Amino acid sequence: MEPGGAPPVATTEKARNRPDTPTGPGSPTGPGTPTGPGTPTGGDGPAAPTPRRLTSPLALTLLLLLMVLLQSPLRRALAAPVMQTWTTVFVAVMIQALPFLVLGVLLSAAIAVYVPPSFFARALPRHPALVVPVAGLAGAVLPGCECASVPVAGALVRRGVTPAAALAFLLSAPAINPIVLTATAVAFPRNPEMVLARFVASLLVACAMGWLWHRLGRTDWMRPPAHGRHESQSKGEAFWDSTRHDVMHAGGFLVVGAMAAATLKAVAPEHWLRAAADNPVVAVLALAVLAVVLSICSEADAFVAASLTQFSLTARLAFLVVGPMIDLKLFAMQAGTFGRGFAFRFAPATFVLAIGGAVLTGAVFL
Amino acid sequence: MNRQAQSAVLFLLGASLLHAGTTDLYLRYVKAGLQPLLLAAGAVLIATALATAWYEWRATSHGETATTPSAAPAHPEPRVSWLLVLPLLALILVAPPALGSYSATRTGTSLQEPLAYPALPAAGDLRLSVVDYAGRAVYDDGRTLTGRRIRLTGFLALDRDGTPYLVRMALNCCAADAQPVKVGLTGRIPPVLQPDTWLEITGTYTPHRVKDPVNDGPIPFIEVTGARPVPPPKDPYDETWNT
Fold first, then answer.
1. What is its main location (chain A) (predicted)?
2. B61–chain A nearest CA distance, Å
């Protein structure tokens, strides 16, 4: 299967920490593993570096060496068309998402280090009924796709922005920024109302989720990683430390999402969709689920929606509203940034509200 | 993973992005317009790796035990970070090819009606893209194509019942959203058909068309008079919809 399935090297390291998991680092342990700050990571305690210990740089070197040695059997194993498609889509999702992830991580580090918490207290209205739509509209200024918005929202929460507002921002930013709306206009040249419908529906759902969190949400569901600057750190050190941490962290979860998306693209048959298109209710649900599993970048999803010509415009609107708010890759990244307890509550609620918002807006505009 | 290992992973990740972005490798996976972003991201990752390594070195060499990771146990990286090695290996060691006939036959043709039909050169062979030909053949009933000798370049895909198609994958952002546009081949089809070979087809317009078995999309045909294998183009995807 995938390259990481083989490494016996790092298994040793893992086995030492958690004898109950006989898995290597390559297996998608992803959101299922307790990855909290409390979990001991292997081998990096420099307190007593006994020479025989398998430290992570050593494990990494051995893993890379092993893979270079094994590269021809590896290539042969990946030569089957299914595996080739899987690898291509996996690499494509990663390459496409990494620049936006890096952009989001840099922004988030800048917010975390250079913007004082008092700025947000002054800039944002205090009343929750007001702050949520303001934050939702502010999403329009983050040019990029959903990979960028997760770390930024995480930084906002850590800087003391009320979670309801940060979440409204998280949901609206990937859907209503000018780049995405322009792409939507280009993809639907004969239905300019799609652009308006997408904007309205996305903003509506983002605000609804913000208000819902304000009413029902509990702070202990959300576990933003302890990320504070140490007193001894200079600003530059804190900036790069935050960048490194976020890329490693969110990047790891991005890999989980990319693997899931690649699996579905390479394995799931498309003719299932044809059967779904005939019933209007099933069509909306089918495209909403498709948006979740495909995990397409929000800058490109409009083109895919445009090509699903057998579906109604409302169903395609649901695809465009659900996709940027919740998909496999986003779920993995949210679980990494805010904790699993949060993601398991937040994702289903977002999914349901997004479908509702899309159907409602579709009934008005389309 | 400790900071040295993280710094190594970040450096390699940045270097592989730079490698993909400076060669044509990235065109197998993402649209051409993403190149500057890829290079910038690669540079930032390398800068992060160097900064991490430098602060780490400074901390240990100055003996400031207060800032070494052992004394600052706040956030050891989760094991999920190890997964970042996977894209690295896939990109450097495997470098998978662009999407080909396997995805093309599993996905329905994504032909959309063109906004306009720009005038074609009046004389000589017509060099058209697969997408352009299919659009004119289906939505303009081949008005601009009849009586002309047409050249198309694409790769070969065989349907389950053996119908040969000339395919070009159309791409909007990355290979995850790539979708095929297919043109069926009829007439003097080459005797040996190997899927995924790139061909330049010479032929004429024919009104024959079928529905794609996957999504009922329209697939026009071309009456083949000649075919010759060609090397894959630099950018294997059709990006005309990106403008």
1. membrane
2. 14
